[in-house]
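Two proteins follow. First one:
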Amino acid sequence: MINTRLTGRWFIQAAGIGLIVLMNMLHGDDMDRYAIRSRHIHTVTRGKVDGVVLIQDGIIQAVGTNINIPAGYEIIEADTLRVYPGFIDAHGSIGLKAPESAGAAGNGSLRIPLSDAHIRAAGLLDRDHQSIDKMRNQGVTTVLTIPPRGVFIGQSTLINLAGADARSMVVKSPVGLHMGYDRQPGQYPNTLMAVIAFQRQTFLDALHHQRLLRQYEQQKRGIRRPTVNEPLEAIFPVFDGIRPLIIQVNTENEIKRALKLAAEFNLQPILSGVNEGWRVVDRLREANLPAIMTVNYPKPEEVTGYAWLLETDPLPGGAGKTAETRKDTIRKEQKPWVDVYANGAALNEAGVLHGFGSWGTSGSDFLKNIRKAVEHGLPANAALESMTIRPAKLLGVAEQLGSIEAGKIANLVIMNREWHDKEALPRFVFIDGEKFRIEESKKTPAKAEVDVTGRWDCKAVTPDGEQPFTLILSQKEETLTGRMVSPMGEVEIRNGVVSGNTLDFTVSLPLGPQPVDLYFTGTVTGNTVKGTLDMGPMGQAGWSGEKPGMEFNIRNESTAIFGGIHE
């Protein structure tokens, strides 16, 4: 038997919903219309405006001082807030699934880089990747994304960090062909000179293949058709000036070699990374090639020149000191850090700074590290341009992004202070006109309930199998320090926190020419720990560890009687 009372009520509700849908179809969805009212609208290209920004259907409809707000717009009162164009990460590995391992050697070593020249990052997009929220919450709305490793890495894609699906995130694809200086331990090419030889031979092969194809196109009869070679053919647009070559370089030697290779093949590449650009700034000024500076700063002892100091004893009291002591001495000196952080100022003064790239940093480090460049001489206005209009021009999207102007994509960030203030935080982010309210995080670690001080024998379960490593940890209340030892070397842990019975920390491993940040979180139970390893663009993995012997401490005094052994 049908309940006519319920059926009638459902019909009325359905009719009401249908009416709302119909009205939205006729008049547009009101929630897609916004009016931002502020005294501090930083347009970038047209100065600062005291007025209104109107947004509808994902597009900036108007910006100015005397704008009437039509009915049906949601008004955001931002009188004391600052409005900026959405920030652009001009080189990262955000929102990507781990590439297929089809080109990998059977022993789990790094993938053959040449096979990736024709791979487009657009095919690896993951709309729900955990890295997207981290960057968006810092005010980054757009990223040039590409897998982080390889020699001929593939073709990058420019994405907005929101969308109904992966395809709707794409702003431009492909953008450029990326080439790097990744070495492959245990197989060719495993040195810088071998990588350079590999790159040069690949260019020569591509030019030869291009000549054969063009000859065949002009006269097919009597000529054997060339075999299709997608990796080599992906390089043709670079030779023809249709698509830029983006060379990922960091050290002084890599920069010099890249400039020499570009000159030999008459190329005008974009240099990305350039951590040691300040060491060859005259060469960069002379070449006048655009640079995207990574904000993943090296430690001073990793920089050419300072690294050499670790092998000698010119430091004060250096004789007889251990390598670790010499590292500590270098880190405490002011000049090495000034040189590292002043790289942006040097590149800008040379006229080659066109953007910033995250390159393995966490979302929370992107703006923080750009602020360090400002603190060390980079003008704040130049830094803002290098997060907005400069990379938009460089990547060929200045008609869509990079400034607050009518007709452009509604990518905006609204902050509580001037962006370069250490206390500045985003309050709203707009991407393609979609509003995201950013809640201020005030997470305070809970009191530590365990003491993880000591050695832990651990393993990570990755697609290449189990990877062993050792943690040597030291804990003081909720602060965790120490180091991680693995077949890839020994590195310090950073941002270590113990909260309750969980621990979190970060390490940077040399997974390529540029270190990549890995984020560990784990739960401690007795003398074991188990958790998740966030490897950024390489996905996630599980990890676990065991502390030899029952050496763990229970900090809660009420349970200490059960035999916690204090070290």
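Second one, unrelated to the first:
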Amino acid sequence: MIQKMMASTLAAASVMCVLAASQTSAQTIPSTPGWTQLTNTKIRSVCPDPAQYPTIQGAEGCQAVVTNWNSAAFDTTRNRLIVWGGGHNGYYGNELYAVDLSTLTVKRITNPGLPSAPFSPCQEAIAGGSQPNARHTYDGLAYMEHVDRFISVSGDMACGASTPSTEIWTYSFASGSWQRMSPGGDSILMGWDLLTIEGTAISYDPVSKFVFIDNKVGILTYDIGSNTLKIRNNQGGGYRPFEVTTIVDPVRRYLYAIGGGQMWRWDISSITSSNTTGSIPNPTRITSSGGSSIVNAPHPGLAWDSTNQRVVAWSGGNTAYSLDPTTNVWTAHTFSGGPGSPDQNGTFKRWAYSPTSRAFVVVNSIDRDAFALRLSTGTADTTAPTVPSNVVATATSASQINLTWNASTDNQGVTGYRIYRNGTQVNTTTTLQYSDTGLSPSTTYAYTVAAVDAAGNVSSQSTGASATTQALSSGGSDFQSRCNAAGVLVCKGFDNASEFVPAVWPASGIYGPDSCANCRMPVQDTSVALSGVSSLKFIINGQTSSNMAGSLRQYFGRSFGNNSTFYVQFALRYDPNLVNINWAQQMGTGWKSVMFHGPNATCSDVELTTVIYYDHKFQHMYTDCGGRGIWSSQSPPLTFQQGDHNCSYDAVESGNTSGCWKYNTLANTWITYYYKITIGTFGTPSSNIEAWYSVNGQPYKKWISIFNYRLNNGTGPSNDYAYATIAPYMTAKNQSVSHPTAYMWLDELIVSTQPIAAPGGGGGTTNPPPAAPTNLRVQ
């Protein structure tokens, strides 16, 4: 059942009216390989009568249903190709057509919605708001088998001026009605509205049951169950040409984008029906051979052959091409009597595969019959693989269980394995292992595995294996109780999908990185968490600029000015690359992790920043956009760290950092940071800055202990402290330098007006006492 849609969803209106009679046919598709012209399947024969529908004809009439950059989707439930399109000022009709491969007929299954769209102004909905305006669909159509719905994403609408749609529409074959979805979730990426980019391409993934959307700025998914969009990958924009078509390989879990001279592939194996927030790796640009006519074509026809487990393409003439996903070699299949030249604006998914008929179908023009192509003959393979054996389940954390098993055998070869959790399929894989993430702590899960062969035969499910996820670590088990304490203004555990939705300035939330090819958005990581089921992960790739990993911006809930105190607590975890790479060689300085600041700039007189001191692997703090350190003095002899440490300038410059707290020995370890900022009167030496850290819940140690310090605010109350920005920000990072990918994780963020208890089990106190100040100097 589809869950409740957003409040803006419009009531659907029935469009099942008196329809054009279908054309009949007594022919069949031969069992031998080759092309078959499906006579009496011209769409023109069932187009709306211009005399009856004069207002929808536009400049081109019904022929625009195919010629105006329009696609189709194959309805596997009814074994038919659904064709839809129009758009701009070429055609205003929004009717649906079906080429039925069971009856080998063509039919118009809806009538045009009236009143149709006006020439100006352009509008999203017609027919009283119940139906979508006609549009250039590009590669924006798909069939969602699990809910029996046809889906349209974006497109260029029918009106006088080119106007991209910002909507998703679905058509229910059961009820015969359209529904405007107005999805929630991610809406903006790198300044682009995700659904307004011309040439958006989509493909349905039957494994995750998500629709993958490639909009040239990034990859996102649409989940009709929750009616939400989710950014899955951000390549930095402009990576591919306009002329691609996309297709999902559900066995090997690839998403392909092919056309316009390029071929790209994403690994989508991490995305499952239960992984609603995870990301996918960057795409690989593929250099293939044997299929240049496909790769170079504008919007080639791409289809998934579920019988032979291959992507098969057509872009005109007598030849179709199948792709070997291992070697990236295209194999030509040529038979006489083909459909002829493709439409000049592309084929898209008007080329499709019918699992029922075990044949391909293509619609190339409304004035030509549809064509079918059968590639192989002979007795079908009906032998299922052997059952996978020795399935072992092992819990590795509070949110992850790993599976291994022994290989199956098959007379034609095993192509993959289906993973079932508690009786429901959650993913497929081509290997003999699988990591199930995003699980709940202290919970038992049961698993089985089934093998699949190239013909789609599936073995029986294996003997079950169970495992119980680990309990939450003691350091994070009391997070909720800390959040419920008096004075708490902000509590973020990074376990809810809403916490990973990109924000729009100046709201709190996740913000994107610089516009560079390898820069990445922060993402949810369900495999690493201090408490709960996930954390926020920052990705630091090589050949990136200063703000390469994005940031978290958090409003305190109020501002803090003269004579006020605020407390901030959060946990960070660094991977070995982040703590061991010599970042100073790239930047000439250190990198920042957290900044407390006013509502606008993070670099100003209202600023308290934690930063790594060059490449000495220890942290210190500064203010005034780096103009003054939070040190015991502003000239030697000074100390970068105080309290439980004596990290002095003289010792550091002589190579002795033994008195410093250094983070480079703490890779893959959760460190809880705790700050107490006591503001006296701005501009006078009356403020105190204190900071502690706790490693894996151990007792707090103090590393910043500065009293009677001058904090400035030259602007006034409108610029008081009110925000924290957390990010691995590397000022002047050299974008030409390659380095291994590094990661930083964030969890358990609390902001309060009162002291915050130490993480449970660590022996800390509710309000860590300040160490006696030593060697301090009034500023």
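SUMMARY FIELD: The mean pLDDT is 85. The first strand starts at residue 34 and ends at 38.
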